[in-house]
């Protein structure tokens, strides 16, 4: 009996950690050993709905009038931090930004690096860490380079698609999510995320209304 409960305990810990996992499980993840994994709830022509478990990140804020400038500064700071502490690089890297910041107006940009499995349970300097809550997100993927104009245009496309099906999301901010180093030229993968509010909506509002009736 003691053996059994020990085993259950181990399995629970393993499951809790399992959402940061081997990048071979995610085909867009090609440059790091470990990646953030998720459950796909549904997929339409315009977006995916994903569920992410709560995990630990290291984050930094950068105040700037430019997303591009803020990302470079924040990336250098976080990269320095993980190098000093011997923490491996993971993917993706997220940048949280307000949808209310317009061009050339100062905004706060929060960049986060996902901590690898070995640092999830024993954070190094807790004051530098941030826990992302368990969350569901609407996701739109795109290739090429993530820059302030590509990110904004993709965020706009995603929010229009969500509005057209009556999906509820927090439109005050979104995440710009990158999976590649700036040195990588081909097969780049980027995403935009909006955080789901209430129940996620998959498909058109007509389909949804029909499913209520049936
Ligand atoms: C990831 O998975 C691949 C293939 O399944 C395996 O060869 C590799 O050793 C794994 N890496 C880690 C860090 O577990
Ligand atoms: C939306 O996000 C903002 C910024 O994080 C937060 O202050 C606000 O409470 C959120 N709105 C809802 C309805 O959760």
Automatic annotation (TrEMBL):
Domain of life of the organism encoding this protein: Eukaryota
Keyword terms of this UniProt record: Cytoplasm, Signal
Cellular component aspect of the GO annotation: cytoplasm
Xref: Gene3D superfamilies: Regulatory factor, effector binding domain
GO MF terms, alphabetically ordered: heme binding
Signal peptide: 1-18
Family: Belongs to the HEBP family.
Purpose of the protein: May bind free porphyrinogens that may be present in the cell and thus facilitate removal of these potentially toxic compound. Binds with a high affinity to one molecule of heme or porphyrins. It binds metalloporphyrins, free porphyrins and N-methylprotoporphyrin with similar affinities.
Subunit structure: Monomer.
Protein's UniProt name: Heme-binding protein 1
